[in-house]
Amino acid sequence: MTKSIRTALTVALSLSLSGLATNALADTQWQKDHPRREQVNNRLANQNQRIKQERKEGELTKGQAKQLHSEDHAIRQEERSMASTNGGHITSTEQKAHNQQENQVSKQIGK
Most exposed residue of 1, 44, 72, 73, measured as fewest CB within 10 angstroms of its CB? Predict the structure, then answer.
C-alpha cells in the first residue's frame, strides 16, 4: 500500500470517528430526557427524507407525497398531544402505537 493511500485512509477514518463523536455529543438534554419521543421523532424525520427522495426520483407523485407527509404530520401532532398530558413524556405503549402508525406510512413509501 502506498503512502498516499495510507494517508487518505487515515484521514477518512479520522473524519468518520470524529463524526461519530460529534453525533454522540450533539444530543441535547431534552433528547436525553425524552428518549421515547426522540425515537418517534427520529423515525418521522427519516420518513420525511425518504418521502422527499422518492418524490425527487419520481417514485411518488406530488399528491402521494403530500398524503404521506400529512399522515406523518398527524402522527407528530398525536405524539405532542399525548406528551402534553403526561408531563412531556410518552409511555412505552404510546411509543409502540406511534411506531405501528409509522410502519404503515413506511410501507407506502417507495411501493
Answer: 1
